[in-house]
Every structure is written in C-alpha cells, then in structure tokens.
C-alpha cells in the first residue's frame, strides 16, 4: 500500500502500463459527435465522486455515456455549465441524478468542511467562506435531496427540453430505484 502521493502515483503509472497492453483506441470525438447528432439516447449521469459509486458498474457492462461527478452528486453552477457543454458536444437529451446510500456528505456538515479547510489553510479562509454551502445533508433526507437536485435542474432555463430524472443507488445491494 502506498504511503505517499509519489508512491501512489508510481502504483497508478504501473497499472497504466498494464492497461496499455490491451488498450483499444476509442473512436475520435468527431465520429462520436456525428453518431450523437442522430441519437436520442445520449443521457448524462450526475453522481458522486465516491469510489463505490461507479456508473460503469451499476448500470451494467454496456454503459457508455458522459458522467459528471462531484462530492455528493449535487447540482452546482459548474454542473449546469457542464450539462450545457455536453448538450452541445453530444446532443444529450437527458440527465440522471444518481445519489447513493451511505454518502460521505451524510457524515459531515457544511460547517465541519469549512472549519477543517480553514484550519488546514488559514490564508484561504475568505476564499473558503466565499465558496458557500457544500451540499451536506442527513441520510433521512436522502430522497428529498435527490428531488431537490432534480428540481434545480428542471428550473434551469438553459436546460429547457432536457429530461431530468432522479435515482437512488443502494450500496447495500447494488440496486437502482427511480425517485419520483
């Protein structure tokens, strides 16, 4: 197990060397865009950056699609901007907001994150305060938070015409459930 960032980097680079032995070059973006133009099924997934929450696994082996990941899979101005860009690039017609059980954002508060960040980097205190809320919530609010993020995206004028749906990913059994 790596004890430093440099050790971990070397492990990852070694893993990449193995990966390149069977790597199959993907099609160029121009080809993907041409296919996407006529394809109504390009759907973006917004989900958490937690390594247990991997769309390439929970959707099944045939999943191919754009994924936006951040802490908690929460809607932020950057997420909206990314969706607008992906809509132009890939003709995306939908967004699936996927939150998961036992999310790290259930285990801390916005204040805890800000306090910790300021303790680690006191010179950045004003910048950290300006970042606003972090999107933490309680596990009891799980479905409510999914609905809240879906509604935020539905209200975005720049996303008019994009179908937005919410899903709950259960880490206990791997199942996905639509949240209405």
Quick gist of this model?
The chain has 180 residues and is an alpha/beta fold.
List the uncertain runs: none
Biggest beta-sheet profile: 5 strands, mixed
Spatial shape: globular
Structure annotation, total helices: 7
The percent of residues in helical segments reads 40-55%
Radius of gyration: 19 Å
Plain-language structure description:
This protein has helices spanning 5-22, 29-37, 55-58, 77-90, 110-120, 125-130, 142-154, and strands at residues 43-48, 67-70, 94-100, 163-169, 176-179. It is of the alpha/beta class and 180 residues long. The protein has a 5-stranded mixed sheet, covered by helices on one side. The chain is globular, with a radius of gyration of 19 Å. The termini are far apart. The model has no long low-confidence stretch (mean pLDDT 94).
Keywords:
180 residues; five-stranded mixed β-sheet; 7 helices
What topology emerges from the helices and strands here?
Elements: H1 5-22, H2 29-37, E1 43-48, H3 55-58, E2 67-70, H4 77-90, E3 94-100, H5 110-120, H6 125-130, H7 142-154, E4 163-169, E5 176-179
Parallel strand pairs: 1-2, 1-3, 3-4
Antiparallel strand pairs: 4-5
């Amino acid at each position: 197990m790596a004890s430093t960032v440099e050790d971990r980097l070397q492990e990852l680079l070694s893993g990449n060397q193995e990966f390149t032995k069977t790597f199959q070059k993907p099609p160029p973006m121009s080809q993907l865009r041409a296919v996407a133009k006529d394809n109504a099924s390009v759907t973006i997934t917004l989900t958490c950056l937690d390594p247990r929450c991997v769309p390439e696994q929970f959707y099944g082996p045939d999943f191919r699609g754009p994924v936006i990941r951040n802490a908690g899979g929460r809607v932020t101005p950057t997420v909206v901007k990314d969706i607008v860009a992906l809509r132009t690039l890939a003709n995306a017609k939908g967004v699936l907001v996927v939150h998961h059980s036992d999310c790290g954002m259930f285990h801390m508060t916005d204040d805890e994150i800000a306090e910790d960040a300021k303790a680690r980097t006191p010179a950045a205190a004003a910048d950290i305060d300006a970042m606003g809320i972090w999107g933490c919530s309680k596990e009891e609010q799980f479905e409510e938070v999914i609905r809240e993020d879906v509604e935020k995206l539905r209200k975005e004028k720049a996303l008019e015409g994009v179908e937005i749906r919410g899903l709950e990913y259960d880490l206990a059994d791997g199942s996905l459930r639509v949240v209405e």
